From TrEMBL:
Protein name in the entry: Tellurium resistance
Entry-linked InterPro entries: TerD
UniProt organism field: Streptomyces boluensis
Source organism phylogeny: Bacteria, Bacillati, Actinomycetota, Actinomycetes, Kitasatosporales
CDD domains, per database record: TerD_like
Amino acid sequence: MSFWQGLWRGREAQFESGSAATNSIALTKRHPTVSLTKQGAATGNLRVNLSWRMRSSDIEGGTKRSGGLLRNPLKMFQPEVVQAHTQGVVNVDLDLGCLYEMVDGAKGVVQPLGNFFGDLNAPPYVKLSGDDRFGSASGETIYVNLDHRESIKRLLVFVYIYDQTPAFDRTHAKVTLYPSNGPRIEIELDEHAPQARSCAVISMENVKGELVVRREVKFVYGFQAELDRLFGWGLQWGRGYKAKADK
């Protein structure tokens, strides 16, 4: 084997290992379901991550402002971030939550609002890692202990905008599931619903011992109570508030 052949084979192996490491399944309207059981991923801790950022058209719109600059030439001397804010960029606080129903009939919610952070090693075997209010790179994460899957009847993972201007259409949000084994599962919240405040993202149901994940991506104009009615959970809801964020 020549030096160049050996070098190429080495690079090819790197690409192959890299593609395996980044393997993913996208749940779409045409392909909305995946079986964690058939993927060999129905054990261990399932990590469910929400990440988002403002769409670039809202924060990088400088190339389309020529008419505005002609009407107000002084704007060209403003810092870019100020120009962006004067175009109506809003602060968005997306929260990740999960409705759960256990096999024994127990029901509830895991979410930042009300500090219902759940428990990973006791019912409901669902735990929220924390509350990200600023769209950081790590986002928000819910863990599901699938070693207790026989106790879980169904879950509904949802995202809502807490007490802010509805702006799902101005964020680029994605929910990613990281099983303990096999490829990650991605769901893009890419549908336009400018006035929606909540979105049911995925459901997970124990169907005769098989864990099936289904893409929902159903936007509603209300909050958790409306999602509850849509999916027939039957909980009682009241207005809740968060503690003020530390600055």
